Amino acid sequence: MTRTMDVPADLREASAELVAATRALMLAAATTTADADTVRAARATIAELAETLGVRPRSRVLRPPFDGPSRSRDTGGREPWALFTHNPMGIPLEIHFGADEARARLVANALHEGPPDSVHGGFSAHLLDCMLGTLMQARGSRSLTASLDLRYLRRTPLDEPLDLYSRIVETEGRKTVAEGWIECRGERTVEARGVFVRVEE
Ligand SMILES: CCCCCCCCCCCCCCCC(=O)SCCNC(=O)CCNC(=O)[C@H](O)C(C)(C)COP(=O)(O)OP(=O)(O)OC[C@H]1O[C@@H](n2cnc3c(N)ncnc32)[C@H](O)[C@@H]1OP(=O)(O)O
């Protein structure tokens, strides 16, 4: 494991920019209407880049510090915590923490499609697990998701602002119950309830 703090700040910044550009490339590659020659030329360029970047790969993505979310929480929601800065597979979320709750805003795009024009249910589950799990982390708790129950109430649209929320319901011993939901235009589309169990460091 390489922690973000183990690499120089300049490389961290360059890596975050590369990942953001890669996400833009993923969307462009998936939705392009360019002709076949242009697409093939792009493929060759990308293959070349993959070779350049893959010369000495790490076995894991850069890992942000565990206390990042709690430091963000300490700012009272002024400084959000950015998720998946170094991983283009993750859906980038900027989470604002309160004491026992969190919120984020996101516009899902064509890469996240499940039912036509709607967010894939697995991505909604991923987003809500992030909202709940990162809130646990922001409260300093080293906990893993033991269960995550979802209710898909209506379709969650692409290309529109989505509001994501999570909050702590109760804690008993090593277990914490948290819930979260996604809203579009003020209407809930998905609800989640998760049990988190604290583990040893
Ligand atoms: C060593 C690693 C270090 C890691 C440092 C963590 C750092 C954090 C970084 C954040 C990272 C982001 C995280 C994002 C969220 C994920 O993506 S987490 C990934 C998905 N989740 C997992 O992989 C978890 C896999 N499962 C497990 O590891 C274990 O089953 C668990 C959940 C830790 C529980 O195992 P255990 O410690 O042996 O717990 P156990 O003694 O059986 O039960 C403890 C209590 O929990 C209850 N419980 C257990 N499972 C359940 C359940 N499914 N439903 C309800 N209650 C349950 C038990 O009934 C028991 O209750 P009490 O009897 O105390 O009242």
Automatic annotation (TrEMBL):
<keyword id="KW-0053">Apoptosis</keyword>
<dbReference type="GO" id="GO:0016787">
    <property type="term" value="F:hydrolase activity"/>
</dbReference>
<dbReference type="GO" id="GO:0016020">
    <property type="term" value="C:membrane"/>
</dbReference>
<keyword id="KW-0276">Fatty acid metabolism</keyword>
<keyword id="KW-0472">Membrane</keyword>
<dbReference type="GO" id="GO:0006631">
    <property type="term" value="P:fatty acid metabolic process"/>
</dbReference>
<keyword id="KW-0809">Transit peptide</keyword>
<protein>
    <recommendedName>
        <fullName>Acyl-coenzyme A thioesterase THEM4</fullName>
        <ecNumber>3.1.2.2</ecNumber>
    </recommendedName>
</protein>
<comment type="similarity">
    <text>Belongs to the THEM4/THEM5 thioesterase family.</text>
</comment>
<feature type="region of interest" description="Disordered">
    <location>
        <begin position="59"/>
        <end position="80"/>
    </location>
</feature>
<keyword id="KW-1003">Cell membrane</keyword>
<dbReference type="InterPro" id="IPR052365">
    <property type="entry name" value="THEM4/THEM5_acyl-CoA_thioest"/>
</dbReference>
<keyword id="KW-0443">Lipid metabolism</keyword>
<dbReference type="GO" id="GO:0005737">
    <property type="term" value="C:cytoplasm"/>
</dbReference>
<feature type="domain" description="Thioesterase">
    <location>
        <begin position="119"/>
        <end position="187"/>
    </location>
</feature>
<keyword id="KW-0378">Hydrolase</keyword>
<dbReference type="InterPro" id="IPR006683">
    <property type="entry name" value="Thioestr_dom"/>
</dbReference>
<keyword id="KW-0963">Cytoplasm</keyword>
<dbReference type="InterPro" id="IPR029069">
    <property type="entry name" value="HotDog_dom_sf"/>
</dbReference>
<dbReference type="Pfam" id="PF03061">
    <property type="entry name" value="4HBT"/>
</dbReference>
<keyword id="KW-0966">Cell projection</keyword>
